[in-house]
Design a protein that fits this description.
By secondary structure, this protein is mainly beta. It contains three helices and 15 strands. Strands 3, 4, 5, 6 and 7 form a five-stranded antiparallel beta sheet that branches. Strands 8-9-10-11 form a four-stranded antiparallel beta sheet, with no helix packed on it. Strands 1-2 form a two-stranded antiparallel sheet.
Length: 206
């Protein structure tokens, strides 16, 4: 069996046998209502600057672009939205309105997580939540808690948008299961189960 085929077999087994990856969310967050559609009023936040395409007339709202009034809140030379299949915008009923995104400081090749808080009118970066190293996957927004989840070769992590908090390890393989093999990645993209209590993963161990 060639190496790529071996990885494929292991991935399938892990997806079935190890899908229950507890998120350890609080009972309050589990019983809360699902988030409502984002209020378009957040586009009026001072963190955004409107730009109109001269050819099409389409209006884009840029997050703290350099050289504008909103740019005073900019926190990194590069600020990037999440991968197109992963929503970074969170709006809770009567609660926070947040936009998670990546920031980077070239020539460093690692991106870190950051969040724009539209209610507070501030932006925060989290150097302890880095993506781009071995085994990392695109970050995923939890649709109920507003936390962000991602994985690296140390395990699956979640992070609160609140200042003064630290990343929390959600779950990790038992070292006996890894058995000194190379853990390439936990997941290509993290996927939540319908009840929000488990992750489906496609881990690669070889």
């Amino acid at each position: 069996m060639n190496p790529s085929a071996k990885h494929a077999v292991i991935s399938l087994l892990l997806l079935v046998a190890n899908a229950p990856m507890s998120l350890s969310t609080s009972s309050d967050s589990q019983s809360s209502n699902p988030p409502v559609a984002p209020d378009p009023d957040f586009l009026g936040s001072p963190l955004f600057s409107a730009w109109t395409d001269p050819a099409s007339g389409v209006i884009s709202h840029l997050l703290a672009p350099s050289g504008t009034e909103a740019g005073r809140a900019r926190i990194a030379p590069l600020q990037q939205t999440f991968y197109y299949i992963n929503n970074g915008l969170f709006s809770a009923p009567g609660g926070s309105r947040l936009l998670w995104f990546y920031c980077a400081f070239p020539p460093a090749q690692v991106r870190t997580l950051a969040v724009a808080d539209f209610d507070a009118g501030t932006m925060r970066k989290f150097p302890d939540a880095g993506l781009g190293g071995a085994g990392t996957n695109p970050a995923m927004l939890h649709p109920v808690t507003g936390e962000v989840c991602w994985s690296n070769t140390q395990g699956i992590w979640r992070r609160s948008p609140s200042p003064g908090t630290r990343p929390v390890l959600v779950n990790a393989f038992d070292p006996k299961f890894i058995n000194n093999r190379s853990l390439i990645q936990y997941a290509t993209h993290l996927t939540l189960s319908a009840d929000g209590g488990a992750f489906a993963i496609d881990a690669r161990i070889g």
